[in-house]
Amino acid sequence: MTLRHIESGDSFPERHVADLDDLKLADDDGSASDSVASSRRAPSRPPKARSESPDGYEMRGRYWEAADILKFDLEESKKAPDVWDYVYDPVCLPPSGVARTPTMRQLGAMPIRRAWRRCSSRERPNMRQGHVIEAIMVYERGEVLDRVGRCKRCSEGKGISRSCVVVPRIIGDACSNCLYDGLGEGCDALQRCSYRLPNRKRGRSDESEDNTVPRKEDFTTVLKLIEQMKNTSAAAGSKKDQNVVAKAKRIEEAALQVARAAREWGRKEAPSK
């Protein structure tokens, strides 16, 4: 792995290219060309430049932290028998001149787990398209599904890469290959892999979210409260009012009264349990 224009003051110098010397396979006599890679020392994080924004410095720091992961992935790819089926593209995420979307910012905060590579039969990605950038970032940072959990297109080998990678909490149902081809809405990766993703321990936040989701019996209780309020307010009369604004205010006040009644009911029932 080599950096290009490290000292040029670029806010996003995490653009990386696969050095040709590092990607050479073993010669005919069986000797591997590892002298160049072994002679390099680990990159050190330079200090922040005066003209560099905090956001750019943070992005540069993430690259230095991920450099070892990318280098290891490239070195391991030499041992794969199908290494010639893949192509490593020089990428910059996000490229200069492209506006970063909220999805890119969320994915950028995640650690890089693998280097981007595509099938040699596919085209080189257009790094000016937002969905292409997001797809590559998902591939670098997401969870790789097994053969059983892959989406239909990935199982048929129609993706730009051989791996079906997902980030459910940010992207949703789509995998990296379907995102790249603009078919994210029709991807069924999450439906196939929802029970195959690594399980994590449920915390208090998960339990609190489950407790706040209304259930069928909760709506039945609300209807009973409304019925009680209708009976108590029937004595006030039924004077018709054609003013829409006044009617809307009354409806809002009725909803607030139902909410207060539910809160008081909870306070009364809590000590008894």
* Count of alpha/pi helices: 11
Total beta-strand segments: 6
Number of domains: 3
- The whole-angstrom Rg is 28 Å
Principal-axes shape call = elongated
Written overview of the protein:
With 273 residues, the protein is mostly helical. It folds into three domains: 1-79, no CATH class; 81-199, no CATH class; 204-233 and 241-269, no CATH class. Helix content is 43%, strand content 4%. The chain has a two-stranded antiparallel ribbon. The relative contact order is 0.07. The model is unreliable at 1-43, 194-200 and 205-209 (pLDDT under 50). Residues 32-41 have a biased composition (Low complexity).
Furnish the topology, listing elements before pairings.
Blueprint: E1 2-3, E2 16-17, H1 20-23, H2 35-39, H3 54-77, E3 86-87, H4 102-108, E4 118-119, H5 130-141, E5 143-144, H6 152-155, E6 165-166, H7 176-180, H8 189-193, H9 204-212, H10 216-232, H11 244-269
Antiparallel strand pairs: 1-2, 3-4, 5-6
Helix pairs in contact: 4-5
In short:
The chain has 273 residues and is mainly alpha-helical. The chain has helices spanning 20-23, 35-39, 54-77, 102-108, 130-141, 152-155, 176-180, 189-193, 204-212, 216-232, 244-269; strands at residues 2-3, 16-17, 86-87, 118-119, 143-144, 165-166.
Task: Please supply descriptive tags for the structure shown above.
two-stranded antiparallel ribbon; 11 helices; 273 residues; disordered N terminus; 3 domains; mainly alpha; elongated
